[in-house]
Amino acid sequence: MITTKRFSLFIMLALLPLAGIAQKAPKSPVELDKQAHRGGSGLMPENSIPAMLAAIDLGVNTLEMDLHITKDKKVIVSHNPILNYKSTTTPDGRHLTREQAESYKLYEMPYDSIRQFDIGMKPNPEYPDQKKIKAVMPLFTELIAATEAYAKKKGRVIHYNVEVKSRSGGGGDGIYHPAVGEFVDLVMADILKTGIQQRCMVQSFDVRALKVLHQKYPEQALSYLYSGQISSPIGDLFAELGFTPEIFSPIFTLVNKEVVSYCRAKNVKVIAWTPNKADELKKLRELGVDGIITDYPNLFDKQ
Predict the structure, then answer these.
(1) Which UniProt keywords apply (predicted)?
(2) What does pTM read for this prediction?
């Protein structure tokens, strides 16, 4: 007669081979990572808190945004290194012109002065469907606090995709932003302070920034933004980086079966930017991308 103790041991031994198989089996594909580009700039003022909250309501998984540094070394959410004349209104109510915008470098302005400009009320010809609403250029930490609180209220867990907007080659160092090492440190300090690191990827076109991040913050998930050429057959896409990133993020027109297969073989996720038509999103999903970054997150519901 088999005792209870011996029977338990027998079951454990019998299951060991199955456990080994389970550990080696590839993970099942996850749901598409739906990302709102700049919070969904086709619908709301880009890189603003109202845009991010609206994107959460639309059901996105990830909020994508751009980061710059002010004169007083604060991390702010902005795509351009200068005030965007297409969407900015001055403190006295005038619409900023293209010529005027050139004299407003964010890296030469303390944050308190940047906050005086409205970025949501001027009609933006690039996004005719964009809702007009009062908004200011937020601090990165301020935006995260707002989105985390809102997501919690909605019973959601939100992820982040933040871009270090340093210029490749060093041409912007000391002019539009600090040296790349300092830029990275300031961004990472805020990521760590807000406690979002495990839900945050850091992306950049600037290989220098990605190298610093990889060397100094090896635990940080990195996304390689790319808009260059891809040969066929594909060579080493990551040769310039010198390491394999967690994510490859090409402009969507570069994505094909070969690119997806190449990245799959290296255990690299593919997140494409920035398709803004339903048929473009549909094609990318059929190709098997892991994520899509779009200005119109409402398109995800039409798939």
Answers:
(1) Signal
(2) 0.90
